[in-house]
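Thread amino acids onto this structure.
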């Protein structure tokens, strides 16, 4: 079934899919429609075997200003008007877990995901790009773990994923203060890989070039590499080595490997089929 959404746009060109946050009139504020549709987009991507890389980008002048506080505030006020405190708490818990699962659907994609950030990337935007494998940005990007400024503990993945990307001191500073940082500092602390130009088009172009470079490799090997990297969490080095040995035992004898060897002998670029 083709994917459609009022707040997301999915475009596929060759082996690269670009998923745009597309609520420009609200500066891509993240509301219930996004939490509902993001897992559906991830599912559509997962069902399309031709997609080898995903770019996560945004329409309009900003990547996202984060949680839709107008929608959130109205829902919060309404939840306090009826039912017991326990019922209200249960509703809140389920809502948070739904939003967490939405962000995690991006992290769980089998293919690499590249975030292409421009303008503001605030609050929930950090949760979202932390779930990506690679992050690029334009020089006009501004990043903020903003939640403490609105009396919230960041709860959609930033406090769990960001410490794996940047050092503990930087995480603590950003999360405790809610301050904005610019693209130069984001690159200096390792939040983004690199900075490209000063516009959305510049960073999207760089992300597309990188995506095509990845997509030219064997999709079996790229997806296997992502799976092995993820499997290192909570494992010793020896356990990780055993995991990759088992992985290659399953997948090493592929047509892609034969193609790589043949292309080497014939002194040409390989053309991988993914099987």
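Threaded sequence (275 positions):
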């Amino acid at each position: 079934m083709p994917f459609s959404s009022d707040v997301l746009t999915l475009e596929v060109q060759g082996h690269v899919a670009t998923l745009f946050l597309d609520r420009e009139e609200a500066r891509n504020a993240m509301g219930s429609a996004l939490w509902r549709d993001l897992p559906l987009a991830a599912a559509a991507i997962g069902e399309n075997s031709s997609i080898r890389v995903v770019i996560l980008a945004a329409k309009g002048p900003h990547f996202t200003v984060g949680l839709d506080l107008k929608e959130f505030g109205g829902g919060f006020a309404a939840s306090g008007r009826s039912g017991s405190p326990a019922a209200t708490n249960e509703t809140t818990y389920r809502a948070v877990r739904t939003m967490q699962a939405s962000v995690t659907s991006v992290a769980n994609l089998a293919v690499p995901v590249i975030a292409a950030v421009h303008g503001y990337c605030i609050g929930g935007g950090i949760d979202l790009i932390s779930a990506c494998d690679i992050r690029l940005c334009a020089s006009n990007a501004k990043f903020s773990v903003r939640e403490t400024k609105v009396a919230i503990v960041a709860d959609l993945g930033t406090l769990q994923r960001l410490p794996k990307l940047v050092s503990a001191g930087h995480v603590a500073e950003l999360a405790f203060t809610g301050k904005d940082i610019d693209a130069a500092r984001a690159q200096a602390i390792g939040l983004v890989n690199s900075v490209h130009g000063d516009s959305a088009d510049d960073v999207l172009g760089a992300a597309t070039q990188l995506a095509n470079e990845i997509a030219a490799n064997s999709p079996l090997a790229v997806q296997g590499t992502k799976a092995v990297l993820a499997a290192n969490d909570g494992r010793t080095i020896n356990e990780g080595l055993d995991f990759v040995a088992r992985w290659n035992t399953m997948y090493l004898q592929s047509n892609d490997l034969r193609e790589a060897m043949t292309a080497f002998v014939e002194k040409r670029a390989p053309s991988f089929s993914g099987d």
